[in-house]
Specification:
mainly alpha; DNA Binding (I), subunit A; 3 domains
């Protein structure tokens, strides 16, 4: 794997290498740009844009438009008029004129834009809540699927053993003894009941476990998508012993 491939694969690696190149360039007085070309084939600016796009894709709230401020609404509504009144003003000068116009407004005149700001903040929060609800719904679906695939094999050996035990007992037991539950049958019934109870308890325990562990795991792996995070939680859960799982039953 080339250096370029390793750098492109991880933003953390990219940042570490870039800082190292900058530090060496400063110490030994050579060009950062020239040194970077030796280390990596991809320009720094291209990598920065690449990782920025990746962060945006991995952020479930990226699609929610940030709320505007009262001044932002005022600028949007009045900049064109101020520009028409000052056709020779440069971009910087025009920004100063808009700011001066805003500062000259009375509190009553500003209230219109403050109300727009307040409404937009509500819109923003509502859209975030909608995304959160959708993620929670997807998480529940993935967790249920993970638990189903994890618990399904458990009942199979028990049922198989019960069938074998029942078949052997039927051939050896007389009609008189067959009317009474044998010790083997009682044991099998008890095992099946225990397995059912364990399965139900395991489902509840896993929900408690993932609720406690999700926040910490998200901080450790901020780039993981919701789906990958759920898969990671399921993998960690399956790696626990029965004793470790038991502590989450009444948590």
């Amino acid at each position: 794997m080339s250096t370029t491939t390793q750098i492109r694969k991880s933003e953390d690696v990219f940042k570490a290498v870039h800082r190292s190149v900058e530090a060496l360039a400063e110490k030994f007085n050579f060009s950062v740009e020239d040194a970077w070309k030796v280390v990596c084939d991809t320009p720094v600016e291209s990598l920065q844009r690449k990782f920025k796009r990746e962060r945006r894709r991995n952020n479930p709230y990226a699609s929610v438009k940030k709320p505007r401020t009262a001044f932002s609404f005022y600028t949007k509504n009045n900049r064109a008029d101020i520009s028409s009144a000052n056709p020779n003003a440069s971009f910087g000068e025009l920004s100063k004129l808009v700011s001066a116009s805003w500062n000259s407004l009375s509190d009553k005149a500003r209230q219109k834009y403050k109300t727009m700001e307040s409404d937009d903040r509500k819109r923003y929060q509502q859209e975030r809540d909608d995304v959160t609800s959708r993620l929670a719904s997807e998480e529940t679906t993935v967790v249920a699927s993970t638990e189903s695939s994890t618990e399904a094999p458990v009942s199979s050996p028990v049922k198989s053993a019960a069938k074998k035990s029942s078949g052997k007992r039927a051939t050896k037991t007389t009609s008189t003894k067959a009317s009474r539950p044998t010790k083997s049958t009682t044991s099998t019934t008890s095992t099946t009941s225990t397995t059912s109870t364990t399965s139900t308890t395991s489902v509840g325990s896993y929900k408690v476990y993932q609720k406690q562990m999700r926040t910490g795991l998200k901080k450790q792996h901020p780039k993981l998508s919701s789906k990958d995070l759920n898969s990671k939680l399921g993998e960690m859960w399956r790696g626990l012993s029965d004793t470790e799982k038991a502590q989450y039953v009444t948590a």
